[in-house]
Design goal:
The complex is a heterodimer.
Chain A lengths: L17 H35 L9 H4 L2 H26 L4 H31 L8 H34 L3 H33 L1
Helix pairs in contact in A: 1-5, 1-6, 3-4, 3-6, 4-5, 5-6
Chain B lengths: L1 H9 L8 H7 L3 H26 L3 H9 L4 H32 L9 H35 L8 H23 L24 H29 L12 H33 L12 H34 L7 H14 L15 H13 L1 H15 L8 H23 L2 H7 L3 H31 L5 H28 L14 H30 L41 H8 L12 E4 L4 H18 L2 H19 L5 E4 L1 H17 L23
Classes of the chains: A mainly alpha, B mainly alpha.
Pfam families (chain A): COX3
Subunit structure (chain A): Heterooctamer of two A chains, two B chains, two C chains and two D chains.
Organism (chain A): Stakelama pacifica
């Protein structure tokens, strides 16, 4: 098999030797498997949310708690950040200038931070109304699910900072490229989870 | 003010936290036993430290073992950890058997609360820190060799998993000395483990020890699955893999899907305890049934994580020692897969009595019984492998045969428990305890011991002593029957599990027999250690440097014992199942390769041990509310991970000339060795070369 035939779909490692391509394959497949495991974790948090939905203990119920406008804006921010990450991936794959990749990663990072800030603002206004996890089982489940997503986004932002530092240190070598691709998978995965949260938690809460 | 500073520095640790202080203040038998156990931990640690320092082995251990990314060394370390933890948990088991035998109509040797700690640590250790490290260690050592790989797919991740597990084990050991462990059993059911009923450190110890180990295990699952999918030698199709690799693959998939439920269950319980959430509390909308579902969504697949590797070992052992190709290879593969899938459909049988309707119970009862079918297929396949084979009754084979008989008995009682109405009668009695020990001792422990005896010569280059192996076998098997068959009777008589004492004199004779059995099991464990000691002393005469002491079939036996770091001087091309056996038949097993290449291997890394230390420190800080420690350790963990991602120089190259030199030295050993017939395989004549193998 020549290096061209086993080239990885999402990557352009150019004239690297077959071993590099093979290692890239294992590294990215391994990350997919990790995401699968992470998906199970989120699935169980969704299930727990479903179970706890009725455990409001006389406290606030979903449609009193959720600020739809805020949630919708958060959704737009996160979807936009997935789009900008897509542009970053294209910049990497088609060997545009390195600073283009860095710029798009930077924009993604800013959108991620904006999302985190917006969500903190939401949490703070909820807390001001006494809607805190210790109030009821339902609020516990809400906060566990949404905060786990938030923690993941935070981890993604830290990863993006590290990623930009790495591109500056090493340029675009095979390992950096593989890592950008993995960060991309992670970022899009979080987007999908958020779409789930928006539909299952917020939209369902309107009813 | 002083109190505030103290809390800031040491959290809720005070003098009474220490087992020694508690025994000093009130020297009852109960507390002296606790202090004795703590002393064993402390003295054991000091002794190990002193011996290593005296022998000046710290540098050697650090450079050759602790920081090594070699899957073989990591595997051995896993098994060593498992041995330490097995010893503790068996001693606890014997103590519990003694307690129950003594405490009929009178107080026993330990107080009820201490008894609760004993069964909780016994269960938690046996599952998370004995069984899991043992099977992960065995897979780590054997699987990459069997598929013709140089290492696992992610060697550093492998080391991190090991040290996370070690961190959890350290936490378990620390709980003996400082603080008290949970009394909530290995499953830690809330609301009993909630703050309202248990505000001490016990459940926190349980939560964080289990969480560390489950994170490590999940990463191991990813690692093994990717290794099997991506790192097989050319020509090693999935259906040419040895059965042990198939069971490893199924186990990895189970780990990937079944460990997250445990992580979620323990994390939500931690949120309840630390941040006043209400997932499983009695009040404010909590729902403990959700815990039961989450826990057993992990817990039942876990049973098969434990049992499947042993099934793989038995398949290898029985076919090797029957000198026959494994009977029904494909049916064994499909049965393994079927068991792995079905394992996700039966979790509810762990709580038939907890309130769901009869239809749901019936569904899960039928699903549970269904698992008996693929398992039955396997048992027949193993028996038919032996049929008309030239069976040699070596130690691994003895354990395998004992397994078949004993496991079928346990399976029968499992089918009984799968019937919900019957389960209502014996639920939470010793019948259940007898059943799951009857599955896990033959279905896990015998398999692990068989695997250890089978592959030990491969790992260390000399055979284990046969006579002491047989003594251990006799003790383990008779000990098991004496210890657990009476529990079936007691369960049927209605004796509940986890009782620190009873008031029914008619239980006494059975409890006495069970106690004798407990001591025999302990003797079996001691015999295994004696065997190791004796074998090390006589390693010269039992050495098998050529590497094939049992005339075996798969790739790992076709290389030197112990194997070189890079496993294969030349990655073999695979054309058949049992490739090494075929090569021996064609007389090509020891042909030198046409050329040697440079080999690239991962360099050592400190990351694994550092993350293990930081992980354990973070967990300890969380248990004791030492927030600065927990925060600092948490930051350290991610600092190390980020720093490591900037390290580029992670491979070393072993030059072709060195590979050639090492390989040719081994080939000359092969040429000098005398091939032996199977009758001589347990004698010093066995140098690891089978008769007729070298052309």
């Amino acid at each position: 098999m020549s290096a061209d035939e086993i080239k990885h779909a999402g990557l352009n490692l150019q004239h690297a030797d077959p071993m590099t391509h093979e290692k890239a394959g294992a590294g990215i497949f391994g990350f997919w498997v990790f995401l699968m495991s992470d998906a199970v974790l989120f699935a169980l948090l969704f299930a727990t949310y479903g179970v706890m939905l009725r455990g409001t203990a006389g406290g606030p119920v979903p449609h009193e708690v959720y600020e739809m406008k805020s949630a919708f804006i958060e959704t737009l921010i996160l979807l936009a950040s997935s789009f900008t990450f897509g542009l970053a991936s294209l910049a990497m794959k088609y060997e545009h200038k390195q600073h283009q990749l860095q710029a798009w990663l930077g924009v993604t990072l800013l959108l991620g931070l904006l999302f985190i800030g917006w969500e903190f603002h939401d949490f703070a206004s909820m807390a001001a109304k006494g809607e805190v996890p210790s109030r009821s089982g339902y609020l516990s489940a809400f906060f566990a699910l949404v905060s786990t997503h938030l923690l993941h986004v935070t981890a993604g932002c830290i990863w993006a900072v590290v990623m930009i530092a790495k591109i500056r240190t090493f340029g675009l070598d095979a390992r950096v490229k593989i890592n950008v691709l993995r960060l991309g998978l992670f970022w899009h995965f979080l987007d999908i989870i958020w779409v789930g949260i928006f539909s299952v938690v917020y939209l369902q809460g309107l009813a | 003010m002083v109190h505030g500073a103290w809390f800031w520095l040491l959290g809720r640790i005070d003098l009474d936290s220490f087992a020694f202080v508690r025994a000093w203040r009130e020297p009852s038998l109960d507390r002296l036993i606790a202090a004795g156990a703590a002393a064993m931990v402390v003295l054991g640690a000091i002794a190990a430290f002193a011996i290593i320092t005296r022998m000046r082995k710290w540098r050697y251990l650090w450079e050759n073992w602790f920081t090594s990314l070699d899957h073989k060394k990591i595997g051995i370390l896993y098994i060593a950890l498992s041995g330490v933890m097995l010893t503790r948990a068996v001693i606890e088991a014997v103590l519990m058997r003694m307690q129950q035998a003594v405490a009929v109509n009178q107080p026993g040797i330990v107080k009820p609360e201490h008894f609760g700690e004993l069964f909780s640590t016994h269960g938690s250790i046996m599952i998370f820190f004995m069984a899991m490290p043992f099977l992960i260690g065995l897979i780590n050592y054997v699987m990459p060799l069997q598929i013709g790989a140089r290492d696992v797919a992610f060697p550093l991740l492998n080391s991190v998993s090991l040290w996370m597990t070690v961190g959890g084990a350290v936490l378990m050991m620390a709980s003996l000395v400082i603080g008290k462990f949970s009394t909530g059993g290995w499953s830690g059911y809330p609301p009993y483990t909630e703050m309202a009923f248990n505000s001490g450190v016990g459940p926190d110890y349980w939560i964080w020890a289990v969480t560390l180990s489950s994170l490590g295990t999940m990463m191991t699952g990813i690692n093994f699955a990717v290794t099997i999918y991506k790192s097989r030698a050319p020509g090693m199709h999935l259906f040419r893999m040895p059965l042990f690799c198939w069971t490893s693959l199924c186990v990895s998939i189970l780990m990937i899907f079944a460990m997250p439920p445990l992580t979620v269950a323990t994390a939500l319980l931690a949120l309840d305890r630390y941040l006043d959430f209400h997932f499983f509390t009695n009040d404010l909308g909590g729902n403990m049934m959700n815990y039961a579902n989450l826990f057993w969504l992990f817990g039942h697949p876990e049973v098969y994580i434990l049992i499947l590797p042993a099934f793989g070992v038995y398949s290898e052992v029985i076919s090797t020692f029957s000198s026959k190709r494994l009977y029904g290879y494909r049916s064994l593969v499909y049965a393994t897969m079927a068991i792995a899938v079905l394992s996700f459909t039966v979790w509810l049988h762990h709580f038939f009595t907890m309130g769901q309707n009869a239809d749901i119970n019936a569904f899960f009862g039928v699903a549970t019984m269904t698992i008996g079918i693929p398992t039955g297929v396997k048992v027949y396949d193993w028996i038919l492998t032996m049929y008309r084979g030239r069976v040699r009754f070596t130690v691994p084979m003895l354990f395998s045969i004992a397994f078949i008989v004993t496991f079928v008995i346990g399976g029968m009682s499992g089918i009984m428990l799968a019937v919900p109405p019957l389960d209502y009668v014996v639920h939470n009695t010793l019948f259940l305890v007898a059943h799951f020990h009857n599955m896990l001792i033959p279905g896990l422990l015998y398999g692990m011991i068989a695997g250890y005896q089978f592959w030990f010569p491969k790992a260390f280059g000399f055979r284990l002593d046969e006579r002491w192996g047989r003594i251990a076998f006799g003790c383990w098997v008779s000990g098991f029957y004496l210890a657990f068959m009476p529990l079936y009777v007691l369960g049927a008589m209605g004796m509940p599990r986890r009782m620190a004492g009873v008031f029914q004199s008619e239980y006494l004779p059975w409890l006495l027999v069970a106690a004798v059995g407990g001591f025999l099991v302990l003797a079996g464990l001691v015999a295994l250690f004696v065997q190791l000691w004796v074998s090390i002393r006589r390693r010269e005469e039992a050495s098998v440097p050529v590497g094939d002491p049992w005339d075996a079939r798969s790739l790992e036996w076709g290389i030197a014992a112990p194997p070189p770091e890079y496993n294969f001087a030349h990655i073999p091309d695979i054309e058949t199942r049992d490739p090494f056996y075929a090569a021996k038949e064609h007389g090509t097993a020891y042909d030198p390769p046409r050329h040697y290449d440079d080999i690239e291997m991962p360099k050592n890394s400190k990351v694994g041990p550092l993350l293990g230390i930081a992980g354990a420190a973070c967990a300890f800080g969380l248990v004791w509310y030492i927030w600065w420690l927990a925060a600092a350790a948490f930051v350290a963990i991610w600092g190390v991970v980020i720093a490591r991602s900037f390290v580029r120089d992670i491979y070393k190259t072993i030059p072709a000339a060195e590979v050639a030199r090492e390989h040719q030295r081994w080939l000359s050993q092969v040429a000098a060795a005398r091939g032996i017939p199977r009758e001589l395989e347990t004698t010093p004549a066995n140098q690891g070369l089978a008769e007729g193998a070298a052309a």
